[in-house]
Amino acid sequence: MMNTIEQKVSEILGIITGENQLFNNLTDEEKIQMLPSESMLTLQFVTYLEEEFDIEFEDEELDISFFESFENITHAIRNHVNEKTA
């Protein structure tokens, strides 16, 4: 499941940023760090994640540290998924 989460997050990131030239030629890590500068894309990204993984982030989770790294996002998703299956 670990790789699946990373792959899905990467796919969603590509969908959300695909048409925005600011994100051309950036790694997933760089896209994540740049995402908060585009508030509408950020909202779409979080919504896609919640729908894809059938989870709901608390508002407090979605602070700047959430977007500091790709790993932070996948870790948060994994925690929510694990809570659902526990």
UniProtKB/TrEMBL annotation:
InterPro entries: ACP-like_sf (IPR036736). This is Carrier domain-containing protein. It comes from Chryseobacterium kwangjuense.
